[in-house]
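Below is how a single chain appears once it has passed through the pipeline. First comes the sequence as given, then the structure the pipeline wrote out for it. We keep one example in the README because the format questions we get most often are answered faster by looking than by reading.
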Amino acid sequence: MNLGPSALTPKENPRRRLGPLLLVIAGVVVLILGLLTPTDKQPPPGPGATAAGGDSWRLTLSRLPAARPARNSRTAPTAKEIVARRLKLFSSKQRALVHRLAEHYHLDVPSDVDRFFDALDAGDWEEAKRIFKSLRGDSDGAPRDESLRKFWRSILEAYGAAEQAQLWPAQQFLDYGNGILNSLRPGMVYVGGTDPGCFICTMLNATAEGEQHQTLTQNALADGSYLEYLRASGDGTLNIPTDEDSQAAFTQYTQDATNRLAHDQQFPDEPKQLLPGEDITMKDGKVQIAGVTAVMAINNILTQDLLRENPGISFAMEESYPMSSTYAGAAPLGPVFELNAATDGQNAISPEAANQVVGYWRDMSQTLQASPDASSSWATLISYAHDAAAQGNLLANNDYPAQAEQTYQTALSISPDCLDAIKGLTQLLAGQGRYADAAQALDSYLQNNPSQSQTITTIRQSYLGNKSGAP
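Resulting structure:
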């Protein structure tokens, strides 16, 4: 099975042969690394920009804020100073973790790795970015050689946090991360999805003076090296999916995708069972899989494994791409949501809670628009809009269509180019038979974002088909 031209050459699992699934695993690892590796590209604000995960434009980034002379003890540090100080502390922690993991695996740490951390410590972003690119090599996300893979995640998280500091106004950087972390209850595990939701929160959590939470990302669970990293770097209190779990997830997804592909081929006039963005084909009797949707489907299975293996632990998630199984029994928790909030399978969201979600994001939209820093920062607005759309998905999947529609609309008011919101809104309206309303919403979005014509056409075909003109 092939996931694209960037697939790595697979290696045999020393614990168990994976057989033909190795081709799947090899390709998916590259997709995951590309999905998770921070990028130095960022769309400009306004019409034409894309939502998280889409095509983007290069942004010239400046150096990290340099440390200022000592201030009067009665003068509070600025947001820039706080971010710079905590980035330096986080860099120190990540460097120490690199060396600990290298010692554990009996590996040498290349001098370039220490020079990368030296640059972060000095606030020299351009030098840190240059060294990181040399460590990453020519691939979309993989390190330049296998010797780096054992501790690559430590480097990636340090780079990701520093990159987000370049993209966000300092106060907004702090407000966003602390807004999520302060919503967590003691002992909760935080699962971050987007680059800001993962890297900002990981850095602020690791450098917090109070309670710290275990943090991870759902986006990388299908990567066996990431699972190994979690086992090696954690404190042992969290049961991480095993290699066997990973193999079972690949098998389960492959069989399911093959069956759905066969349905679509045998019954072309029936609704498609393959999801938008899920590229599944047959070639020479073998299944060919490509696309982020496929990767996230496997991550979805492994996320459920993670929850099942840790029944006494509460998890909070910031959604990256929608994962259907996470919505059942989940409940809103500030800007994110708690997984398995209702263990009896019942709806964990009351009507009052659903209305509170609408009010939360309405107030957030007003707060962001009233802040010159926030309202002029594309990174800030698209991140909040994305998280609002994710809670719209949660409401829609828990039988609160009116509140979901309002939340999607608020997400679009925060960032009019939020693809997550227009996709969720279109699916919701089409599911209610409101095809004309859905078509009008897509037309309005396209008018403001003409560069998204191809994506909107795909969404229109997936959810409306030939019903766009229905009354």
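The first helix runs from residue 21 to 36.

See the next section for the split statistics.
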